[in-house]
Structures are given as C-alpha cells and as structure tokens.
C-alpha cells in the first residue's frame, strides 16, 4: 500500500530531548552541561581527533559550547548527537551523531568518536548499531552515509563490519589545520541493515 500523500517520509524525534537507546554495555543518552568534562576528555585527544573535521579542543569551555550547539541543532532538527555512556561506571566515553538529516530523501550521515583509552573493546560497534537501528526502524531512514578519511582504518573496519559499502572517494574534501584530506564515502541501505547478534 502506498503512503498517504501527507505522511512525512521520516518521523523526526518529538519532545524536548533525544530518547535513550540501550545497548549491552553502553547507553546512548541526551548530553547535558554536567557531561562537559567527559566530553572534553574525548575531543581533546589528538589520537581521537586525528581524522576529525576540526582540531582537538584546547579548553573545557569548548565542550560546554559543543553541548549547547548539540541542543540547538536538536531543536532545529538538523542533527541528533547522543552521548555514549558506559553502563559500568556512568562515564560518557564518546558520542554518536546522525547529521545532515534529510527528511525528503530519507537519509542522514553517521559520525562517532570514543575516548582513546576505551578503543578496541567493541563499544562503538554496540553504540553505532543502536543508532542505526533507531535510524532505520524508528525514524524511517532509507540510507545512512559515512564520510571517513581513507587512512582511518579503525573507522573503516567498524563501518564495513556494520554492512557499509565503500561507494567512492572524494579528493581533498577537508582542510583541518595544515592538512588536506580525502573522503572515503560509504553507504548503508535500510534493506541491507542486519543488527549484529547480541
Ligand atoms: C572509530 C572508533 C570509534 C572505533 O571505536 P572502537 O570501540 O574501538 O571500535 P570497535 O572495537 O567496535 O571496532 C574497531 C575495529 O577496528 C579495528 N582496528 C582498530 N585499529 C585498526 C587499525 N589501525 N587497522 C585495522 N583495524 C583496526 C579493531 O581491531 C576493531 O575490529 P575487531 O573488533 O574486528 O578487532 C575509535 O577508533 C575512534 O574514536 N576513533 C577516532 C574518531 C574517529 O575517527 N571517528 C570516525 C570519524 S568518521
């Protein structure tokens, strides 16, 4: 049966904040200014920011400003950014983002970052899976894209394990500090999405 003409293509989040998404060892939740120190620890690290679209943070106030920006972008429905809270200790160890929400084309971009000392434990596999399931099943997205530096091996391994397909290479797409970087473009379609077994 085809959709009625007035049905929105994508169901955006209503209310004043993002819903909490639960995974086995992490929960994805709304960030508040009380999380600024944890967020600063993530985005100040040169290793974590090596292939990011901006330079490492220098001051804690930049983390507060980021959280305020996340709230403003949620209010205008342009970007959803969850904090990744580790259940065992309540620490916010990273974030996962759905950006460039495009309602009429039913797509968004995914982005993620974790604190350096928490890499390699599979936390982001869990966190990104929870956001992808939410994006496809609840929001009704048909496509999620990722823009990754081709040298960013950990991100590429993670995305391809989640089912993303490399679709192209865009040259000299980013200028961060003194560096110019290409973008590997990856895409995952709703019909290809298979949530990993718990
Ligand atoms: C990308 C990132 C979130 C991955 O987090 P994570 O919790 O360590 O991810 P996972 O453990 O679930 O999976 C990472 C995979 O990459 C692999 N990997 C890590 N470094 C690698 C490298 N240099 N070369 C090849 N594979 C690598 C890991 O072995 C793991 O695969 P495995 O589970 O099969 O062993 C983390 O590395 C990070 O925050 N990077 C900096 C931010 C960033 O670049 N974000 C992406 C921008 S698009």
TrEMBL record:
Q: Which organism is it from?
A: Enhygromyxa salina
User: EC?
Assistant: 2.3.1.-
Lineage, top ranks: Bacteria, Pseudomonadati, Myxococcota, Polyangia, Nannocystales
Question: At the top level of its lineage, which domain of life is listed?
Answer: Bacteria
Protein name (database record): Putative ribosomal N-acetyltransferase YdaF
Return the broad EC class.
transferase
Return the Gene3D superfamilies for the record.
Answer: 3.40.630.30
- What GO terms are given for molecular function? protein-N-terminal-alanine acetyltransferase activity
Q: Which Pfam families match?
A: Acetyltransf_3
């Amino acid at each position: 049966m085809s959709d009625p003409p007035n049905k929105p293509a994508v169901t955006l989040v209503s209310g004043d904040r993002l819903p909490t998404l639960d995974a086995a060892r992490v929960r994805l939740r709304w960030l508040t200014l009380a999380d600024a120190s944890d967020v600063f620890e993530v985005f100040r690290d040169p290793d974590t920011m090596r292939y990011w679209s901006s330079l490492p943070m220098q001051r804690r106030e930049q983390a507060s400003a980021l959280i305020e920006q996340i709230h403003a972008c949620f209010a205008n429905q342009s970007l959803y950014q969850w904090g990744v809270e580790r259940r065992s200790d309540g620490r916010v160890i990273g974030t996962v983002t759905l950006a460039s929400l495009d309602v009429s084309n039913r797509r968004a971009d995914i982005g993620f970052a974790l604190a350096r000392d928490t890499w390699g434990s599979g936390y982001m596999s869990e966190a990104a899976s929870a956001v992808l399931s939410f994006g496809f099943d609840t929001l009704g997205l048909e496509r999620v894209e990722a823009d990754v530096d081709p040298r960013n091996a950990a991100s590429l391994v993670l995305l391809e394990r989640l089912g993303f397909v490399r679709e192209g290479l865009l040259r000299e797409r980013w200028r961060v500090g003194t560096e110019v970087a290409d973008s590997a473009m990856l895409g995952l379609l709703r019909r290809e999405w298979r949530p990993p077994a718990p």
